[in-house]
Design brief:
about 425 residues, mainly alpha
């Protein structure tokens, strides 16, 4: 039955069907082929796929990110980052990375991060004679921090799929997210130095203080959200509501860049984005039920373990599979489908669900930079109005940085597990 499911998914994907409909149609074909299961299973599993308290955090974090963008909070973050590091060669590229890290700690979405930060810095970079391809590459690569630095929508999905602590997953992703951001800064600096990209004069201390004061409420927002989660005061779902209320109050009454007339459009945009993700999660749950029922995870585990029982070889094989899947499928859908298949396999060689969850999310998010899906890459390229082949070439060094970081996370699991274990003591 799983063979028909996989073939149907591949066929519908090639035909260009949206991934949510693709998964639902493939599940229907698989059940009809098996003939031994009632079709009522599909709506039951679709309902079960979104009947989860942690998943309620997704629409609120999406709404918070949209409110931030409309309220000009992203501009305050960019101005502060520019006042700090604007004097470095290739400063705008590094500002893009750092500002994306701040924004990622609120939105949890790569596309939202690229749109909010890249939408401002890409035109600015082009104005300062950076190449359009490089500007798109930096903004797109920085956007990958969105689903990795907590709060992370893919980690919420993974935690809901395994009924495990989302807070622990968030803690585990802090160091990998910061590590990726700093690595992207280093790559931006090296490339900018080689191409002699411009830098600004060092900002006076008064300008830094002014930017910090103006951006104060924007800069402490990640601390409010993540601090409340990690201290145990609220759950990630409750923190997402706090993020919305915070963004509303700051945008409407402190910065006053957000207007009441804008709220209807923001709510509609957030509802559409949420609906897309929820359809994917719902139909992914149905397709993953087919996979589990057909005992495919056990078959795959037995086949691989008969070939090798080396933990690192198995992790390398799994990483290769995930990199290929990330090129073809949206990360949230891939997590729901592959979690019941791969978690039992890696568990047999001693990989914890916490380590694997962050590793899997990091790996699949690199797919945001690779076609044909590559949502972050395509959005950055559209903003830059550049040829996609040039942007692909410019993105290659940043993708390589991501692969090196992925290798470190694979072979040094303590990078992921250190903070969760430290705070449990």
């Amino acid at each position: 039955m799983h063979n028909i499911l996989i073939l149907a998914i591949l066929l519908f994907t090639i035909l260009g069907m949206p991934i949510g409909y693709c998964l639902g149609a493939a599940t229907l074909f698989a059940l009809l082929y098996a003939g031994s299961f009632p079709l009522i299973v599909i709506p039951q599993q679709i309902f079960a796929g979104i009947d989860s308290f942690p998943i309620m955090a997704i629409p609120f974090f999406i709404l918070a990110g949209n409110l931030m963008t409309a309220g000009g909070i992203n501009q305050k973050i960019i101005r502060f980052c520019n006042s700090l590091i604007g004097w470095v060669t290739g400063s705008l590229a590094m500002v893009t990375v750092v500002a994306s890290m701040f924004f990622a700690a609120i939105s949890g979405s790569a596309v939202a991060t690229v749109a909010a930060i890249g939408g401002i810095t890409i035109p600015a970079m082009k104005k300062e004679k950076y190449s359009g391809a490089f500007a798109a590459a930096v903004a797109s690569s920085s956007g990958v921090c969105g689903p990795i630095i907590p709060p992370s929508i893919p980690l919420i999905v993974y935690g809901a799929a395994l009924s495990m602590s989302v807070s622990d997953l968030f803690l585990g992703s802090v160091i990998p997210g910061i590590m990726l951001g700093l690595s992207l800064c280093a790559a931006s600096y090296v490339i900018s130095k080689r191409n002699n990209f411009p830098k600004h004069e060092r900002a006076p201390r008064a300008e830094v203080r002014r930017a910090a004061k103006e951006g104060f409420w924007a800069l402490i927002m990640p601390l409010v959200i993540l601090g409340s989660i990690f201290s145990g005061i609220v759950t990630p779902t409750e923190a997402s509501v706090i993020a919305v209320m915070y963004a509303l109050i700051v945008g409407l009454f402190i910065y006053r860049d957000l207007k009441f007339k804008d709220l209807h459009h923001i709510l509609c945009e957030s509802a559409i984005s949420t609906a897309v993700i929820m359809i994917i999660l719902a139909t992914s749950k149905a397709s993953s039920w087919v996979v589990v029922t057909s005992r495919f995870p056990e078959t795959l585990s037995s086949a691989i373990l008969s070939f090798t029982n080396s933990k690192f070889i198995i992790l390398i094989l799994v990483n290769i599979i995930l990199l290929i899947v990330g090129c073809l499928m949206e990360a949230n859908a891939a997590i729901v489908i592959l979690t019941p298949i791969l978690v039992p396999l890696v568990a047999k060689v001693g990989v914890s669900p916490l380590h694997f969850g962050v590793l899997m999310t990091f790996n699949l998010c690199l797919g945001l930079l690779t076609p044909p899906v590559g949502a972050a890459l395509l959005l950055g390229n559209d903003i830059a109005e550049e040829k996609i082949e040039k942007t692909l070439v410019a993105t290659a060094p940043f993708f390589l940085v991501g692969l090196v970081s992925l290798a470190l996370l694979t072979f040094v699991p303590e990078i992921i597990t250190f903070l969760p274990e430290l705070l449990k003591k």
